[in-house]
Amino acid sequence: MTNETIHHIAATCPINPQQPKSDQKRRRVGSIVQDFSLNTSTHGIPGIARSETIPNRIFWIVSSLIFSGIMIYFVTQSIRAYFEYPTQTSVTVILEWPQVFPAVTVCNYSPLRYDRFIGPFLNYTNALNLTNTTDTSNFTIQQALHIQDFLIYKLNRNESLTDMFYSLDSMMMSCVYNGMSCTSANFTWFLSPNFGLCYTFNALMKTTGQTGLKYNAENGYSGLLEMRFYIHQHQYVPYLSNGVGMVALVHDNAQLPLIELAAMQLAPGKHHKLGYAKKINTFLPAPYTTCNDKLNLGMQAMFNEYHDTDYGYSLYLCYAACIQAYTYTKCGCGQPYRWNSRSIVLPNTNKTINIPLCDFKNRCYVDAATEIMNTKSIWTAFCPDCTQECTYNDFIIKSSSLLAPPKFLLNGIKQFVESSKVPLPTNWSTTWTSEIESSFVSLEVVYETTRTDISSQQATITPVDVISNVGGHTGLWIGISFLSLMEIAEMLFRLIRSQFHRFRRAKEVTVESPETNIYL
Q1: What is the CA radius of gyration of the chain?
Q2: What are the Cα distances from residue 428, in Å, to 126, 414, 435?
Q3: What is the phi/psi pair of residue 156, to 5°?
Q4: Is the alpha carbon torsion for 364, 365, 371, 374 positive or negative?
Q5: How many CB atoms lie within 10 A of CB 501?
Q6: How does 147-186 read in b/e, with b if 16+ C-beta sit within 10 Å?
Q7: What's the CA gap between 390 and 282, in Å, rounded?
Q8: Got the DSSP string for 485-512?
Q9: What confidence score (pLDDT) does residue 519 get?
């Protein structure tokens, strides 16, 4: 055959040497997909691959799409339910022994001692021409209207009020903890706008920490604090208090005592027993709740008024600090009932500001408190950190009382009163028995049980639950499992590898033979 004949055949019937190889590759890809479709454990796909008629194939395609849609719906609902972060509360009981004895705060129900108060008060009212008298024996209701203004005046001048209040030594006749004597040195103090000087036993202190706390198992006892007080009710300032007695609060060692809100009132002439049981409450952190245990700068400034105590975060105190800051911004002074909030930190600053307290006649502080508590934007700006505590301890109290004092204690009480350096009633020599009965208060705080209730918040749906729910729905509706996913991964790997080899061989052929060769 001549060369002209060969070239004529090649021109008339061109042959592409790559064409058979391309068809082979397409068949290779198809075989991989078909092999997967026939052998996968996922329901529906094998039915489509095995179908020999169009109606049968349509049936399996429609069925697969319907059940895939149902599966997607339930899987989506399961995932959405998890991201709603639902919770539940579980209650457990543990035996806690030994246990830290709680803090106990006590105050005289009436804050002011008349003998220490009346002189400076008359100087104040006379200087302002509110009164014109030097009579210290008679006190009228009109004079009582100026008491709060007088106290604010003294505080704004940074003058001490402690001399006008009842000292612990003048009230406490005896203190015994677990058979061991305790004194005023075992108490820390703070000022209350309602009760004057208040005293806390067994508070957590920065200087001593946990090692300075008393435990209920000390000295072989099981936790018993016994105190006797004489409240000097004849020294109560008229029209200032609604009753006679003391107030007490059993609280956590690291919790600032909210004595104005939660105190128990103790009537005189009785021996009071407060039996306590401990309860621990815990909440989940974000994203389940917005709880918080961190002190902001405003609360830290407030706690400086509590004399080296190491108190923790409190929602109520956070409110008090931010409302006081807003009141100062609005009025140039703070709420007059917040004696221990005279140091504030404004939002977006770290500087402590000492502020004056508003006069009671200046109603700006009332309007400011109303505004911040009812305006979300202001509340968010001044109180962003004020959320529920993540952990707090409650003490469930059971109270009971008996008449007191017994007759054999009367002479000892009489000696204490006469040596207390508090002026006696004018008719003390004849009425001292009745005076003791109207001023004697006995308090016993006792540990009742080793059981501690723990209420803890737990996630209703955990990540494991989500995986289980998703796996259950995918397996139920279309039969997908983790092994099914591995089958898909294997198919993809085989397809990628096939394509890679195809491109590599195509490149090699192009490099070796750029022109078409025909072999006969």
Answers
A1: 41
A2: 32, 10, 8
A3: -65, -20
A4: negative
A5: 12
A6: bebbbbebbbeeeebeebbbbbebbbbebebbeeebeeeb
A7: 6
A8: HHHHHHHHHHHHHHHHHHHHHHHHHHHH
A9: 42
Which is nearest to 307 in space by CA: 213, 211, 206?
A: 206
> What residues contact 520, with CB distance under 8 A and at least 6 apart?
6
Greatest mean pLDDT among 52-56, 277-281, 486-490: 277-281
Which amino acid type is present at position 403? L
Report the distance separating Cα 221 and Cα 149, nearest Å: 48
Stretch among 47-56, 264-273, 390-399 having the lowest mean pLDDT? 47-56
| Residue entry with tokens 């204690």 | 409
Percent share of the chain, pLDDT over 70:
93
Q: Decide if 200 contacts 78 (C-beta within 8 A).
A: no
Q: How many CB atoms lie within 10 A of CB 289?
A: 15
Q: Which two tokens stand for residue 469?
A: 């729910």
Q: Is 99 helix (H, G, I), strand (E, B) or coil?
A: coil
Give residue 23's pLDDT: 52
Q: Which has the closest alpha carbon to 179: 134, 119, 224? A: 224
Under 8 Å CB-to-CB from 192, ≥6 apart: which residues?
107, 111, 198, 259, 260, 339
Give mean pLDDT, residues 443-459.
92
Using CA atoms, how far apart are residues 137 and 395, in angstroms rounded to an integer? 44
Predicted confidence at residue 518, as pLDDT, reads: 45
Residue 520 pLDDT exceeds 90: no
Which pLDDT band, with edges at 50, 70 and 90, does 24 fall under? low
Mean pLDDT calculated for residue range 44-70? 85
Contacts 24+ apart (CB under 8 A), 463-467: 463/82, 465/82, 466/78, 466/79, 466/82
Nearest to 88 by CA among 465, 473, 387, 450: 465
SS3 345: strand
Residue in this structure with the two tokens 């796909």, named with its chain if needed: 45
Q: Contact 454/92 with Cβ under 8 angstroms?
A: yes
Residues in Cβ contact with 42 at an 8 Å cutoff, skipping those fewer than 6 apart: 478, 479, 480, 484, 487
